[in-house]
Amino acid sequence: MMREKWSSSLGFILASIGSAVGLGNIWRFPYIVGLNGGGAFLIPYLIAVFLCGLPLMVLEFAMGRNSKNSVVATLSTIRKRFRFAGFFLVFVMGMILSYYLVITSWVLAYSLFFISGVTISFSAFTGSYYPLLFFLISGIMSFVVVRAGVRRGIEKLSKFLVPVLFGMLCILVVFSLSLPGAMRGIEFYLTPDFSKLFNPFVWTAAFGQAFFSLSVGVGIMLTYGSYMGEERIVKNAAIITVADLLVAILSGLVIFPIVFSFGLDPAAGVKLAFVTLPPIFQQMSFGSFWGAVFFLLLFLAALTSSISMLEVPVATLIDSYGFKRKNATMIVSLIVILIGLPSALSYTTLQLELFGRPLLDLKDFAFGTVGIIASGLVLSIIAGWFLDPGIIFKEIKGGRRIQKLFLIIIRFFIPLILFINLIARVIKPD
Predict the structure, then answer these.
(1) 8 Å CB contact between 185 and 34
(2) Looking at the predicted structure, is the pLDDT value of residue 372 above 60?
C-alpha cells in the first residue's frame, strides 16, 4: 500500500503550524508569562525556542522523512530494542490527548454558549453533563478528520483553519489594544524585570513551555515528517517555529490588555480563560461577539493540535501492524475516549480525584509536564547517540560547521536541558 504524502509544501507547513499552534500558545503561554514576571520571561523563552525547540523539530522531520515511517517503526530501525521507546512516546502522546480533548471540549462549549447568548459559570458548567457531551463531540470531530487521511483530512482542514485562526487573532489584538488601560498590560508584558532572570525556575518554565508549545519531542513532527516530499527541512521548520512564536506573542497582546483594563491578576493561572474572562466579556459592549471570537479561536487551535496528536498512534497502527486507516482511527479514538472519560468527569459533581487533586490535573502533570519532557529526552538521546549522523546530515544538508554544531546541540545541550527541566519539575511541580 502506497504511503500518503502531503500534496504541497504549503500544506505540510500549515498542517505543522496547526499542530504546533494550540492551547499551549493562546491559553497557556500568557498565564505562564504572568506567573514568571511578565517581560523577563520572553528572554529565556526565545532562547529556548531557537536553541532547543527548532533543532529538535528539524531532527524529527529529518528522522521521519528518512524512514518514511511513524515513531515505533523509525526507532526500531535504529535498534530493535528502541521499539519500546517508540511505544513509550506513543503512550505519552495518547495520554496527553485523552485529557487535552477535555479542555478542547470546554473551549467548544464556551464558544457555543457565547454564540447562543447563554450565560453559565464554570462551576455550573462542570457540575452538569455538558462536559461529557462536548468531550464526545470533540473526540468525534478529531476522529472524522484523521479518518479522512493526510491530504483529504489533516491537510485540507489545516489549509482552511490556520489562516482563519491568524485572522481571528489579529482582530482580537486590535480590539484588546483599543481598551482603556491597555498600555499598562503591554508594559507589563514587554518590559523585562532582569532580576527575574536569576531565578532558575523561570528558565525551566521557559524551556518547558517551548517544548509544550512547539509539539516537539513526542513524535508528532516525526510522524508529519514521514509524509514529506523533497521540501527543505530547515527552512520549513524555521517558518513553523516563527509562526508558532508569533501566535504566542500575539496572544499575550490579547490577554494582558484585557487583564489590566479590568483589574485582573496577570498571574491568575489556568482559571483565567474559563473562570475570570467569561464574566468580563459579558460586561463589555458586544461582549457576546468578542467572547465567541475568543473561544472559537481557542477551539480552532485546540482542534488542529488534537488531530496531530491522534495521528501519532493511528500512524503507528498503520505502519507497524498493517491496519487500514479507518480501522486504526476507530480503535485509537475509542481507546482515547475511554481513557479520557475519568478526566472529563473529574470536574463534575462526581469530582473524580486522586491524592486530593482532580484526575485531569494529575494527568496533566504526569504526562503533559513530566511525560513530555521525558519523551523529548529519550528521543534526543537515541537520535543523537545511536542514529548514524550521516542520515541526519543527508536530510538537513548545510555546511560541515553547521552540521557539527547541530550534532553538539542534539547530543549534549538538549538532553542536558531536558534533564535539568525534568528534575526541576519534580522538585517544583507548579
Answers:
(1) no
(2) yes
Report residue 121's pLDDT band, with 50, 70 and 90 as the boundaries. confident
Q: How far apart are CA 26 and CA 49, in angstroms?
A: 16
pTM score of the predicted model: 0.93
Residues in contact with 425: Cβ distance below 8 Å, sequence separation at least 6, in sequence order = 204, 208, 369, 370, 373
Q: CATH for 9-427? A: 1.10.4160.10
> Can you give the pLDDT at residue 269?
59
Q: H or E segment at 275?
A: none
What are the sequence ranges of the domains in the chain?
9-427
Question: Which pLDDT band holds residue 430 (cuts at 50, 70, 90)?
Answer: low
Instruction: Give the Cα separation of 255 and 14 in Å (integer).
Output: 25
- In residues, how long is the chain? 430
Q: What is the pLDDT of residue 144?
A: 97
Collect all residues with Cβ–Cβ distance below 8 Å to 207 and sequence separation of at least 6. Answer: 44, 48, 52, 417, 418, 421
- pLDDT higher than threshold 70 for residue 267: no
Instruction: Provide the 3-class DSSP secondary structure of residue 146.
Output: helix
The C-alpha atoms of residue 263 and residue 265 are separated, in whole angstroms, by 7
Amino acid of residue 77: T
What cell numbers appear for 18 in the block? 496547526
**Distance between CA 240 and CA 61 in Å, rounded?**
12
Whole-number Å distance between alpha carbons of 162 and 165: 5
C-alpha torsion angle, residues 209, 329, 15, 156 (rounded to 10): -150
Plot region of 22 (φ>0 → left; ψ -120 to 50 → alpha; else → beta) = beta
Residue reference for cell 504541497: 8
What integer pLDDT is reported at residue 230 of this predicted model? 86
- Give the integer Cα–Cα distance in Å for 114 and 130: 15
Q: What is the largest CA-CA distance in the chain?
A: 61
Do residues 360 and 339 touch, judged by C-beta distance below 8 A? no
Residue 90 has pLDDT above 60, yes or no: yes
C-alpha cell at 427: 522538585
